[in-house]
């Protein structure tokens, strides 16, 4: 079928070239004969005209064949081959192969812009490959994270069915089921929030609000935790700090940073919260005296499901800092972290729009 189409295309090309060459040659011959008759009073008889017509026909036929071959060769080299390579690559992409890369042929064959198309296609393939890897990792991590609280709920629910349990044991198991269900609910909520942020279904709204007041409210949400662990709070906040940004999105940042600070700070430790101004920037720092982390760990802390301290895995899902990073990015802010193993960490967020 493909060969028939190629032959049909070649025949159409030949007929077009033949008609074009015939027209051009006929016009040139007619002009030439007219000039010769007018200028030199030449008279052509029937025999001369017949011979000239035959020679002209075969010349036109020969030139048409030559031009058709040249055009076909040019098309095969400059068009058909790069198109075939692109089509082969797209077929492999459709089949799920994101490792394919097409080698550009250089400027000599870039008359139709195929090298530019190939470069863009290679970039798209690389992006698709990275997205596919992230998707696979995300699904695997979500599956793993969902199994943990579900297993806890299932095990304790089974033990709660025993008639020999004391009231204290029954209460202990019920509390364990409650916390596991809360972890599961938080995981699902964070996944949905992160998905909306990454798919740009949530857009920042810039309104004026008091950042100092918001930080106070977010800190008070963890009062039970710092009192239970006897954590000392060192708060340096001005009375008011007006800023134009998205308060709802920024509350996600403070809640997650404070949650991590409270979680990793040991009993009797210290959590510091400060707010200051740098030009038109608001600078918020949240420090703890927890376990800290190495430089290697610090390079991965904003990745989904990454946890620097496996011993705290049951109290988190590794999505908090991923949410923080995404909010910081879409609000045009910046976040940095300084940490020393065994001494603690300091997260600093710089937000534009300070009034």
User: Can you write the helix and strand succession as a string?
Assistant: HHHHEHHEEHEEHHEE
Q: Sum up the overall morphology in one term.
A: elongated
Q: Number of DSSP helices? A: 9
Number of domains: 3
Biggest β-sheet, characterized? 5 strands, mixed
Q: SS-based structural class?
A: alpha+beta
Per the CATH scheme, the topology name of the largest domain is: Heat Shock Protein 90
Which regions are unreliable across 5 or more consecutive residues at pLDDT < 50?
A: 310-317
Q: From the 3D coordinates, which CATH architecture of the largest domain would you assign?
A: 2-Layer Sandwich
> Beta-strand level of the residues, as a percent range?
5-15%
Residues in helices, as a percent range: 55-70%
- Which CATH top level class of the largest domain fits? Alpha Beta
Instruction: Give the CA-CA distance, first to last residue.
Output: 71 Å
CATH superfamily of the largest domain: Histidine kinase-like ATPase, C-terminal domain
What is the average of the pLDDT values? Answer: 78
Taking all Cα atoms into account, the compactness measure Rg is: 38 Å
What does this 3D model show about the protein?
61% of the residues lie in helices and 13% in strands. With 355 residues, the protein is α+β, with helices and mostly antiparallel strands. It has 3 domains: 2-97, no CATH class; 128-198, Orthogonal Bundle (Helix Hairpins), CATH 1.10.287; 207-352, Histidine kinase-like ATPase, C-terminal domain (Heat Shock Protein 90, 2-Layer Sandwich). It has a 5-stranded mixed sheet, covered by helices on one side. It has a two-stranded antiparallel sheet with strand order 1-3. Helix 2 (46-94) packs parallel to helix 3, helix 3 packs antiparallel against helix 4 (167-198) and helix 4 packs parallel to helix 9. It is elongated, with a radius of gyration of 38 Å. The two termini are 71 Å apart.
């Amino acid at each position: 079928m493909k060969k028939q189409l190629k032959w049909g295309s070649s025949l159409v090309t030949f007929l077009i070239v033949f008609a074009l060459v015939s027209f051009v040659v006929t016009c040139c011959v007619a002009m030439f004969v007219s000039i010769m008759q007018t200028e030199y009073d030449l008279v052509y008889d029937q025999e001369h005209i017949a011979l000239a017509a035959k020679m002209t026909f075969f010349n036109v036929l020969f030139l048409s064949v030559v031009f058709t071959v040249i055009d076909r060769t040019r098309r095969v080299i400059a068009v058909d081959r790069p198109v075939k390579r692109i089509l082969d690559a797209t077929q492999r992409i459709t089949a799920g192969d994101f490792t394919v890369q097409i080698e550009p042929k250089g400027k000599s064959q870039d008359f139709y812009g195929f090298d530019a198309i190939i470069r863009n296609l290679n970039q798209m393939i690389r992006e698709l490959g990275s997205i596919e890897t992230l998707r696979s990792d995300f699904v695997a991590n979500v599956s793993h994270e969902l199994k943990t609280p579900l297993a806890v709920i299932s095990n304790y629910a089974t033990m709660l069915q025993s008639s020999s349990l004391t009231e204290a044991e029954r209460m202990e198991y019920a509390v364990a089921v409650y916390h596991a269900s809360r972890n599961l609910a938080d995981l699902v909520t964070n996944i949905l929030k992160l998905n909306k942020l990454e798919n740009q279904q949530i857009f920042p709204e810039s309104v004026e609000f008091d950042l100092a007041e918001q930080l106070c409210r977010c800190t008070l949400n963890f009062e039970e935790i710092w009192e239970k662990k006897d954590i000392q709070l060192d708060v340096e906040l001005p009375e008011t700090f007006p800023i134009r940004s998205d308060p709802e999105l920024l509350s996600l940042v403070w809640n997650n940073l404070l949650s991590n600070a409270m979680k990793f700070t040991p009993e009797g430790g210290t959590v510091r919260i400060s707010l200051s101004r740098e030009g038109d920037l608001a600078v918020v720092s949240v420090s703890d005296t927890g376990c800290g982390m190495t430089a290697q760990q610090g390079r991965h802390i904003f990745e989904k499901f990454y946890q620097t301290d496996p011993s705290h895995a049951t109290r988190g899902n590794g999505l908090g800092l991923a949410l923080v990073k995404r909010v910081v990015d879409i609000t045009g802010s910046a976040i940095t972290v300084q940490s020393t193993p065994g001494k603690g960490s300091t997260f600093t967020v710089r937000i534009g729009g300070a009034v």
